[in-house]
Design a protein that fits this description.
The protein has about 110 residues and is of the alpha+beta class. It has a domain of about 60 residues. Helices cover about 20% and strands about 20% of the residues. The protein has 3 helices and 7 strands; from the N terminus they run ββαββαβαββ. The strands form 3 sheets. It has a 3-stranded mixed β-sheet, covered by helices on one side. Strands 1-2 form a two-stranded antiparallel sheet. A two-stranded antiparallel sheet has the order 3-4. A hairpin with a 2-residue loop joins strand 6 and strand 7. GO terms for molecular function: uridine phosphorylase activity.
Length: about 110
């Protein structure tokens, strides 16, 4: 799948059609001390985003916050990752715009 306009392969600086890291050409990002993802209540200076999301292979989006929490509990049981009845915290708890839950390689977002 080809990346969208303005995206390229970081190594070659050319548009690519293979699976690789995506590099966004925005010189203003380099000068920022912190990249704040306001709607998710996350930021690069307050959260270790690679540690939090580096193993994510599946992103499931849809429904209400309660439905996405229920979905992550279901996935936990189906994949035998953890106890489905365990408490899964809302990663975006500081905002009312989104809810985000994670178990293993699965991220569930409303």
């Amino acid at each position: 799948m080809a990346p969208g306009p303005g995206f390229s392969d970081e190594k070659n600086e050319t548009l690519c059609e293979s699976e690789s890291t995506v590099y966004v050409h925005n010189p203003h990002l380099d000068g920022m001390k912190d990249d704040i993802l306001y709607h998710f209540n996350l930021g690069t200076s307050t959260h270790n985003l690679p540690a939090m999301f580096g193993d994510v292979k599946f992103v499931c989006v849809g429904g209400s916050p309660w439905r996405m929490k229920s979905f992550i509990e279901y996935i936990a049981g189906e994949l035998s990752l953890e106890d489905p009845k365990a408490e899964y915290p809302n990663i975006c708890a500081g905002t009312d715009r989104y809810a985000m839950y994670k178990i293993g390689p699965v991220l569930s977002v409303s």
